[in-house]
């Protein structure tokens, strides 16, 4: 599961998309610190979560359930548990390496970098969204372009522009983050500065001892009536996770 989303997503997705370790970040009003707080809230030092994914298309809708684990900035595992026909499908991200397991083929496949921006499990989230890829922190420059208020919090609008020569897909990203680090919105622009997709937080709730974007929705701009929603139904943060969880062996033959 995090884009910021997903934390895939959380999403899956994982990625995308905050604050126990970031007191006072709102007062600092530093754009990079705010984005970092959003990542920290999404994943913490480690996390274990249960997420329902709804993939909506005009005329049909799919519902899937998955378990997700993250550790640090570069480890994430998402495994689908329902429905039966999708159960066992899993994605493991270790740094820049992404592995997927298809139980029907009983095969682990390493995804090339060119496919990481592709659709994950037929949803509107990408493989990068699964672990909330940190490109927006490392490959972009940030500045606050506006402020507002919602739910008793200051909301910062942040523009992220690629650094010169950065190997990134998006021409620009815009993020809205509360002063306590809760991610409210992330908008993705192409190289011509046209909106390609947008992720919004539909509900902020108390989960795992923190305020958290428990319901997030990704919508592609060019496809009306199409969206994917991630609903985090359970989560624990800063919990010990066995080292074997983030291994190829556990991806293919789960021990948990």
From TrEMBL:
Q: Which domain of life is it from?
A: Bacteria
Keywords attached to this entry: Lipoprotein
Every copy of the Uncharacterized protein TP-0789 domain together lies at 72-252
Q: InterPro entries attached here?
A: TP_0789-like
User: Mind telling me what this protein is named?
Assistant: Outer membrane lipoprotein-sorting protein
Please name the source species.
Answer: Allgaiera indica
């Amino acid at each position: 599961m995090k884009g910021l989303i997903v934390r895939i997503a959380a999403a899956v997705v994982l990625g995308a998309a905050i604050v126990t370790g970031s007191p006072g970040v709102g007062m600092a009003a530093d754009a990079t610190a705010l984005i970092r707080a959003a990542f920290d809230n999404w994943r913490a030092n480690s996390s274990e979560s249960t997420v329902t994914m709804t993939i909506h298309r005009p005329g049909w809708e799919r519902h899937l359930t998955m378990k997700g684990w993250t550790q640090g900035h570069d480890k994430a595992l998402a495994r689908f548990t329902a429905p039966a026909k999708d159960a066992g499908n899993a994605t493991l991200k270790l740094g820049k390496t992404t592995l997927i397991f298809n139980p029907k083929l009983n095969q682990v496949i390493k995804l090339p970098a060119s496919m990481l921006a592709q659709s994950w499990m037929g949803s509107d989230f990408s493989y990068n969204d699964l672990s909330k890829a940190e490109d927006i922190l490392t490959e972009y420059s940030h500045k606050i372009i506006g402020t507002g208020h919602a739910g008793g919090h200051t909301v910062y609008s942040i523009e992220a522009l690629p650094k010169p020569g950065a190997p990134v897909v998006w021409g620009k990203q815009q993020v809205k983050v509360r002063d306590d680090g809760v991610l409210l919105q992330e908008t993705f622009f192409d190289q011509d500065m046209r909106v390609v997709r947008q992720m919004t937080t539909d509900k902020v709730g108390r989960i795992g001892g923190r305020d958290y974007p428990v319901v997030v929705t990704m919508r592609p701009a060019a496809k009306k009536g199409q969206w994917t929603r991630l609903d985090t139904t359970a989560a624990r943060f800063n919990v010990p996770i066995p080292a074997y969880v983030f291994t190829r062996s556990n991806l293919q033959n789960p021990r948990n």
